[in-house]
């Protein structure tokens, strides 16, 4: 496994792979890797010949007052985990390598980036699109792997790939959960024991929403059930609990799968989670 810090070095390494006729899989991450990330690396290894994992805490996707400075960083541990998981290249650029002084261009996620999660984090999805577009241009992957836990990010990036004609396919891997249902997230590192127990309310809320839909309840009732669970939980402040269409993040479309999405603050962490519901 090669650990590379410059765009030029990565491009050179990958041109060798391309010359050998190898396919390239890209797993963009912000590091502090957990089993969710490693499942993406393994999925990439199953489907492509050379797996590139980028680790870059992207300043553009954090708003003022968010946790950019505090975001967990563990370069040494991450490199070891990626070696064990079978990555071929780790791309670890510094902030100046990705965003040198004088840069000006950004990619806008448009309306899809302004609703639901985007309404609570203005500019977040533009920052995600800008860095991911750069990573796509740098690595030129055949396949790019993202986790379903960041469902709106997946919708935004699929839209970007289609709208801007990136010649690659986005593959989405299932959310990886702890045995008690908590969705794995680097931000879970912020939680102490009792906050971690409080955080289980997010998955409980999603399950309550699913139960309403299973019983034939409407989307508003499912949202009500999710909000009630979050409100009843100690130490949890709800940002939103919504039933949306998984592609547009607008209102669900009759007869189509419904995505239940929640976001809440638990102690110092802001957590998101979602579950897709499909009628039989
Ligand atoms: O999902 C993440 O970790 C980040 O949003 C991503 C896709 C690596 C872009 O910085």
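-> sequence recovered:
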């Amino acid at each position: 496994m090669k650990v590379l810090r410059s765009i030029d070095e990565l491009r050179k390494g990958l041109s060798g792979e391309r010359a050998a006729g190898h396919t390239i899989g890209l797993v963009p991450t912000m590091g502090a890797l957990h089993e969710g990330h490693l499942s993406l690396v393994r999925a990439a290894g199953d489907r492509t010949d050379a797996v590139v994992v980028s680790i870059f805490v992207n300043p553009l996707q954090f708003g003022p007052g968010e946790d950019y400075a505090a975001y967990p960083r563990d370069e040494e541990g991450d490199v070891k985990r990626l070696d064990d998981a079978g990555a071929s290249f780790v791309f670890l650029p510094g902030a100046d390598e990705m965003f040198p002084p004088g840069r000006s261009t950004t990619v806008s996620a448009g309306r899809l980036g302004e609703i639901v999660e985007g309404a609570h984090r203005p500019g977040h999805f533009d920052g995600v699109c800008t860095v991911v577009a750069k990573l796509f241009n740098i690595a030129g992957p055949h396949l790019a792997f993202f986790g379903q836990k960041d469902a709106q990010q997946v919708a935004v990036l699929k839209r970007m790939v289609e709208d801007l004609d990136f010649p690659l396919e986005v593959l989405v891997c299932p959310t990886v959960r702890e045995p008690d249902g908590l969705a794995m997230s680097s931000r879970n590192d912020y939680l102490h024991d009792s906050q971690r127990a409080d955080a289980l309310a997010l998955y409980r809320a999603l399950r309550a929403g699913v139960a309403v839909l299973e019983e034939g309840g409407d989307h508003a009732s499912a949202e009500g059930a999710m909000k009630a669970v979050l409100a009843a939980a100690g130490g949890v402040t709800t940002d939103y609990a919504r039933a949306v269409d998984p592609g547009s993040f607008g209102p669900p479309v009759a007869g189509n799968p419904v995505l239940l999405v929640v976001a809440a603050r638990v102690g110092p962490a802001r957590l998101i989670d979602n579950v897709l519901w499909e009628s039989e």
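The first helix runs from residue 7 to 19.
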